[in-house]
Design brief:
alpha+beta, 24% strand, five-stranded antiparallel beta sheet, 140 residues
């Protein structure tokens, strides 16, 4: 993992602590897992994260739609599941997807602001530059 990837994951770790489940980046051509907790990786057995992320790519279209339909600018989406919440945003046209365990209230607006103001070179963590198995787990 490069320095920007490590700094990027560190923002999420500082935000969610041990509740952080996974962090992915994606673009139109691929996705990259930057972090996945071991128990989450085990839960993905038999599930294809690529299909889920393919669905999140619709955000490239829907964020423009929301910007055209509302007076405010789209920033991020949060989806609630029975075991976790998922955060999705786009920074410099890089899709970002992360999940955190349920049970603690998280200020996703604060997370978005931290991502926006970071000095990370987002092109270096773009989803399609490296193979999908370039992730780290909590045990690494």
């Amino acid at each position: 993992m490069n320095d920007d990837s490590e700094a990027f994951v560190a923002i999420f770790r500082e935000f969610a602590g041990d509740a952080l489940r996974d962090v992915w980046t994606f673009d139109a051509d691929g996705e990259r897992c930057l972090y996945i907790r071991e128990d989450v990786a085990d839960s993905l057995d038999g599930h294809d994260p690529e299909q889920y992320i393919d669905n999140e790519r619709y955000g490239y279209i829907t964020r423009r739609t929301y910007n055209d339909l509302t007076y405010a600018e789209y920033q991020y989406t949060v989806r609630g599941f029975d075991e976790f919440s998922t955060f999705r945003t786009f920074i410099e046209d890089v899709g970002v997807l992360a999940s955190v365990d349920r049970g603690k209230t998280h200020d996703f607006g604060e997370l978005f602001d931290r991502l926006q103001t970071s000095e990370i070179e987002y092109d270096s963590i773009r989803g399609s530059d490296e193979p999908n198995d370039s992730h780290v787990t909590a045990d690494d």
